[in-house]
Amino acid sequence: QVQLVESGGGLVQPGGSLRLSCAASGSRFSIYSMGWYRQGPGKRRDLVANINNGGSINYADSVKGRFTISRDNAKNTVYLQMNSLKPEDTAVYYCNAEYLDRSLDTLTDYWGQGTQVTVSS
After folding, report:
1. 86-96 residue pLDDT tens
2. Contact between 6 and 110 (Cβ < 8 Å)
3. Which pLDDT tens digit goes with each residue over 32-52?
4. Distance from the Cα of residue 20 to its chain's centroid
5. How far apart, in whole angstroms, are the C-alpha atoms of residue 121 and residue 83?
6. What confidence category does residue 75 fall into, taking pLDDT thresholds of 50, 70 and 90?
7. Nearest C-alpha neighbor of 1 from the set 114, 87, 111
8. DSSP string of 21-60, one letter each residue
9. Which of 36, 98, 113, 115 is least buried, going by the fewest C-beta atoms within 10 A?
10. Would you say the C-alpha torsion 99, 73, 54, 50 has a positive or negative sign?
11. Neighbour-count burial for 94-114, b at 16+ CB within 10 Å, e otherwise
């Protein structure tokens, strides 16, 4: 069974920084991409950033220039460095991994349990 373990969330003041980590394990299939999504109170779950196994990266416009995503493919681990945090960044952050089934040429999504990030004075 696939397991995604997240860490690094917490309470931080505006302008502060946090670093999230997510380690994936438990699948015989290879990972095509990993990324981070977030869901604030009363909002939908939206993409923050993702990175595929070729190194291509996508960021939400709201975090460009402040957040940096990186990946250690050998360890199946993805990181999110969050700088200049704002109250609007407050949300539950979820790790996502896409696994590739080469036989069927299909991708399957898996999710972590989420880690709370709160930005407040």
Report:
1. 999 999 999 99
2. no
3. 999 999 999 889 999 999 999
4. 8
5. 16
6. confident
7. 111
8. EEEEES-SSEEEEEEEEEE-TT---EEEEEEETT--EEE-
9. 113
10. positive
11. bbbbbbbeeeeeeeeebebeb
For residue 61, give the 3-state DSSP assignment.
helix
Integer CA distances (angstroms), 26 to 7, 34, 74, 78, 101, in order: 18, 15, 14, 16, 14
Give Dmax (Cα) for the chain: 51
CA distance 62 to 69: 14
Phi/psi of residue 33, each to 5°?
A: -150, 160
In angstroms, rounded to a whole number, what is the distance separating the alpha carbons of residues 18 and 10? 8
Tell the residue number behind the tokens 């299939």, with chain if given. Answer: 29
